[in-house]
TrEMBL record:
Signal peptide: none annotated. GO terms for molecular function: ATP binding; ATP hydrolysis activity. This is ABC-2 type transport system ATP-binding protein. Residues 3-230 form the ABC transporter domain.
C-alpha cells in the first residue's frame, strides 16, 4: 500500500489545516493532489515525508511510519522552490545525494549519470547550475528526486514556470516511469495533471472532497471541442443544429461541450469531424467526456 491515512488531522495553533482525512492509495502510478491555496496540500505532503507530525490520527507510507529509516531510498520529495548549489557541479551534487543514501562513490557516480540520462541532460554532469536554463535546472532537481530508484516520489508544482518544451519533457518523464515508481504530484495546472496522472485527489478546507479517475468519465456521451479562432461567432448555433446533438455549452473563447444521443449516433465523433471538414471549419482539439476541470468544479460529473 502506498499511503494509508485514518482520521488524520494537523493543527497549527488554533488553525486546523487537515481535518480527519481518511485516505487509501494503492496501485495508481501517478496521483494528482489539487485544491486552492491553503487547502492543506503542503501540510499533507509534509506529513507524508515526515517533516511534520500529525496532531491526531494515523498515517503510513509504503507500510512504514513517515520519517522511518526503512523509507530511506524508498521515498523522495521535490519541493517547488528546491534550489541547486551554485558552487558545485551537477555531478558532484547528485553524487552527494547518492552518498547520503549509503551509496559508494562509484555507485553514486553511476546513479547520478543514470538519472541525468532519464531527464535527457546527460551532458550537464560537469556543468554548474548557473550554466543551465531555468527549465534545465528544474529537470536536474527532478533527477535528484529519482536518485536511488525510490518507490514513491512527491513532486510539488514540477512544471510551474517552465516553457512548453521543458514542461513536455517533465510530463514525458513521469509517463515513461509508470510501472517503475509512483508519483504524488501537487499542482494547480489541471491540464498538465490530466496528461500525467491516473487518479486525482481534490482537497478543500483540510478534507479530501473528491477522488476521481482521470479517464473515468470518457464513456459519457459528451465531447469537448475547441475550434480555431477564425471559426466565427455562429459556431455554437451551427453545432446545436447537427443531427444527434442534445445540448451545446459554450465554455468561452472557442471551446464547446456537446452532449449527444449516443444510442442514435454511436460514432458521433466521426460525424462531427466530417461535418467540420465539409464546413471548412478548423478545430484545435477534440476530446471525449468532460475535462478534469469540468469534472472537478462544474458539478457535471456522473461519478
Amino acid at each position: 500500500m502506498l499511503i494509508h491515512a485514518h482520521q488524520l488531522s494537523k493543527s497549527y495553533g488554533s488553525k486546523l489545516a487537515l481535518d480527519r482525512v481518511d485516505l487509501t492509495l494503492d496501485g495508481s502510478d501517478s496521483i494528482a493532489l489539487v485544491g486552492p491555496n491553503g487547502a492543506g496540500k503542503t501540510t499533507l505532503m509534509s506529513l507524508i515525508c515526515g517533516y511534520l507530525q500529525p496532531s491526531s490520527g494515523s498515517l503510513s507510507v509504503l507500510g512504514q511510519a513517515p520519517g522511518s529509516s526503512e523509507l530511506l531510498g524508498q521515498l523522495s520529495a521535490l519541493p517547488q522552490d528546491a534550489q541547486l548549489d551554485p558552487g558545485f557541479s551537477i555531478g558532484i551534487q547528485l553524487r552527494h545525494f547518492g552518498a547520503l543514501q549509503g551509496m559508494s562513490k562509484s555507485e553514486a557516480d553511476r546513479e547520478a549519470r543514470r538519472v541525468l540520462d532519464l531527464v535527457q541532460l546527460a551532458d550537464t554532469f560537469s556543468s554548474r547550475p548557473q550554466d543551465l536554463s531555468h527549465g534545465m535546472r528544474k529537470r536536474v532537481t527532478i533527477a535528484q528526486a529519482l536518485m536511488g530508484q525510490p518507490k514513491l516520489v512527491l513532486l510539488d508544482e514540477p512544471t510551474a514556470g517552465l516553457d512548453p518544451a521543458n514542461a513536455r519533457a517533465v510530463r514525458e518523464l513521469v509517463n515513461n516511469l509508470r510501472g517503475q515508481c509512483h508519483f504524488l504530484i501537487s499542482s494547480h495546472n489541471l491540464e498538465e495533471l490530466q496528461k500525467m496522472c491516473s487518479t486525482v485527489l481534490h482537497i478543500e478546507q483540510g478534507r479530501i472532497s473528491q477522488t476521481l479517475e482521470v479517464h473515468g468519465g470518457q464513456n459519457d456521451a459528451i465531447l469537448t471541442l475547441t475550434l480555431a479562432p477564425q471559426s466565427g461567432k455562429d459556431a455554437g448555433r451551427w453545432l446545436g443544429q447537427l443531427p444527434g446533438v442534445n445540448e451545446v455549452t459554450h465554455k468561452g473563447q472557442q471551446e464547446f461541450l456537446l452532449r449527444y444521443d449516443n444510442n442514435a449516433h454511436p460514432q458521433f465523433d466521426i460525424e462531427l469531424l466530417q461535418a467540420l471538414h465539409q464546413q471548412q471549419m478548423e478545430y484545435r482539439q477534440l476530446g471525449r467526456g468532460l475535462s478534469l476541470e469540468d469534472r472537478l468544479f462544474s458539478g457535471s460529473s456522473t461519478e
